[in-house]
Amino acid sequence: MNPTRDLKFKAKRVTRQYVQTIMAEPSVVHSLICPVKEAEWLEGWDYRLIFSHSGIAEQGCVFTSRSAGEDTIWLITKRDDAGCETEFARVTPGSRVAFVTVRIEDRGNQTSRVYIKYTITALTAAGNAFIDNFTEENFVKDMQFWEATMNHYLKTGKPLAQPDAEHWLHHESDKNMPQADR
């Protein structure tokens, strides 16, 4: 590690929030907030379950995912099935760390409100470039797709096809990344 470079680095942090409407009761929606179950409703979800006593989402569960050429390590830091809330810590090595919360409330008539919050902190210049591209517009686009595919799955039992093969974080973050960090 170069101490001079470390002194020049200033980490960026961003928080994004979104509220989804999912057409199912909270316990059903909450059961799908799980690395194993996500593979059923999200096309292309590439994960590996590292540790879980139950084989599904639980506090202390560790898994990895791969998306847009990046590997991410996830730890479920809170899993409250009765309260329908899950919190995750996730690290994308050489880039960023994030805290993710998913809280689900009953709206009645077999409908849930899903409150999603991401707080991302850069670890490197590559992480800062990711944050620069983690715009409100890109986040909303992802959350709307998540909402649409979960509702589609709950209605049909099948995942919704991904709308674009080149996800924004893959091609946009590389373009703006400082040359030394590629």
The CATH class assignment is Alpha Beta
Structural class: alpha+beta
Rg is: 17 Å
As residue ranges, the low-confidence spans are 168-182
Strand order of the largest sheet: 1-7-6-5-4-3-2
- Please tell me the CATH architecture by its name: 2-Layer Sandwich
Count of helical regions: 6
Give helix and strand order, one letter per element, not per position.
HEHHEEEEEEHHH
Helix content: 25-40%
Strand content: 35-45%
Distance between the termini: 16 Å
Write the CATH homologous superfamily: START domain
Number of strands: 7
Describe the structure.
The structure is a single chain. The protein is of the alpha+beta class. The chain has a single domain, classed as START domain (Alpha-D-Glucose-1,6-Bisphosphate, Chain A, domain 4), CATH 3.30.530.20. The protein is built from six helices and seven strands; from the N terminus they run αβααββββββααα. Strands 1-7-6-5-4-3-2 form a seven-stranded antiparallel β-sheet. α4 (125-133) packs across α6. The longest helix is centred in the C-terminal third of the chain and has 21 residues, at 136-156. The radius of gyration is 17 Å and the shape is globular.
Jot down its keywords:
6 helices; 182 residues; disordered C terminus; 7-stranded antiparallel sheet; 7 strands; Alpha-D-Glucose-1,6-Bisphosphate, Chain A, domain 4; alpha+beta
Topology:
Blueprint: H1 3-8, E1 13-22, H2 26-31, H3 35-41, E2 46-51, E3 62-67, E4 70-80, E5 85-92, E6 96-108, E7 111-122, H4 125-133, H5 136-156, H6 168-176
Antiparallel strand pairs: 1-7, 2-3, 3-4, 4-5, 5-6, 6-7
Helix pairs in contact: 4-6
